[in-house]
Amino acid sequence: MQQAVILTDEHIAALYPHLLKDLRVITIPAGEDSKSITTIARLTKELLEIGATRDTLLIGMGGGVVTDITGFLAAVFMRGIRCGFVPTTLLAMADAAVGGKNGVNNGMYKNMIGTIRQPEFILYDIQLLQTLPQEEWSNGFAEVIKYGCIFDAGLFDELAQHDLAWYMQNNDALNKVIERCVAWKNRTVAEDEHEKGIRKLLNFGHTAGHAIEKLYALPHGKAVAIGMMIACHISEQQTGLDAATTQQLEAALQRYHLPVHMAIDTAKVMALLQTDKKRKDDSINYILLQDKGKAVIHPLRLPVIEKALASL
Ligand code: NAD
Ligand code: ZN
Q: Closest by alpha carbon to 83, among 49, 61, 60?
């Protein structure tokens, strides 16, 4: 018998009881700490206890934490069951729910255990963002601005002209921006699902970003914002990026209440970078900008990264 099970976090379950009331629901505590193998073990047990089978459809309703866990749990439960997503944060709508990457963290190491596996569907309803706190809107815009930086100078300019408050009031404009990010991600994933080439570009801001996220317990979006600024400063030295582009990015991030700088412990960041998934021997395939809307994969030796981080 087919049955659907909703996986959500406790925060969303409390906000949307009317949507969930007649459904089978399992929950995780809200927040990044739930992205662990312990959660997967607990949820596996819970699914078995409520009678889930190979025919169960697992639906993740929530932000990127919920969609990453749902995708991974569905990939490994009974060697694979179907899943779908109902993203409820801007970050998940524009990025995390799309593309099939899923997974959990292993202590300090982000997304180290996971698979690439596509959901059956992603259901969009931006009305769900009405309850989203402003800080989470900001976090979502970090990934949205990322798409402008990597692929789409027009999107970047549009975002730089407006600000957070404007998009929070303009559903049509917001829908178009989400559609544009999803289109870029789909195009990239269709060409390179397993990240052998062009998909690596989506990691812009995420190399130092992931290390900072874990070391300083920052939300993903904020860490990516700082990571993008670091990548721009390195780009100025390595690809000749115009300093004016770095300044434009800084101004744009500030319009969405995102941080652009923080004092970091270079040695600790470097220690985490040694384990980066993009590392090869003593180099990391760093994603740099050549220009607004044009990212490139640029191998950088670890001492060069260390010197750049120390000089920030
Ligand atoms: P999140 O899932 O932790 O959500 C942020 C907070 O918002 C949580 O407290 C949540 O309960 C709350 N929330 C969610 N929806 C809400 C709503 N509609 N109203 C009120 N509150 C709501 O985090 P996130 O920022 O959505 O996602 C970040 C995660 O996504 C990170 O773990 C990151 O690694 C992952 N990610 C994955 C990919 C991918 O390709 N798989 C891409 C980008 C990010
Ligand atoms: Zn991200």
A: 60
Read off the pLDDT band of 23 (50, 70, 90).
very high
First to last CA, the chain: 58
Q: Which atom of ligand 1 lies at the shortest distance from residue 210's CA? A: 34
Per-residue pLDDT reduced to its tens digit, 106-161: 998 999 999 999 999 999 999 999 999 999 999 999 999 999 999 999 999 999 99
Q: What is the mean pLDDT of residues 26-33?
A: 97
Q: Using CA atoms, how far apart are residues 232 and 117, in angstroms rounded to an integer?
A: 31
DSSP state of 30: S
Rounded to an integer, what distance in angstroms lies between the CA atom of residue 210 and that of residue 70? 21
Residue 101 Cα to ligand 1 midpoint, Å, equals: 14
Identity of the amino acid at 72: F
Distance 48 CA to ligand 1 centre (A): 26
Report which ligand 1 atom has the smallest distance to the Cα of 87: 15
The predicted-structure confidence for 263-310, as pLDDT tens digits, reads as follows: 999 999 999 998 877 777 789 999 999 999 999 999 999 999 999 898
CA of 311 to the centre of ligand 2 (A): 25
Helices within 152-219 (DSSP H only): 153-161, 164-169, 171-191, 207-215
Amino acid making up residue 304:
V
Supply the residue whose CA is at minimum distance from atom 10 of ligand 1. Answer: 30
| CB contact burial 246-280 (16+ within 10 A = b; e otherwise) | bebbbebbebbbbbbeeebeeeebbebbeebbbee
| Binding pocket residue ranges, ligand 1, CB within 6 Å | 9, 11-12, 15, 30-32, 35, 62-66, 68, 88-89, 91-92, 95-96, 99, 101-102, 111, 128-129, 131-132, 136, 139, 220-221
Residue 1 predicted with pLDDT over 70: no
In the reported structure, the alpha carbon of residue 199 is separated from the centroid of ligand 1 by a whole-number distance in angstroms of 21
Distance CA 84, CA 140 (A): 20
Q: What is the pLDDT of residue 274?
A: 85
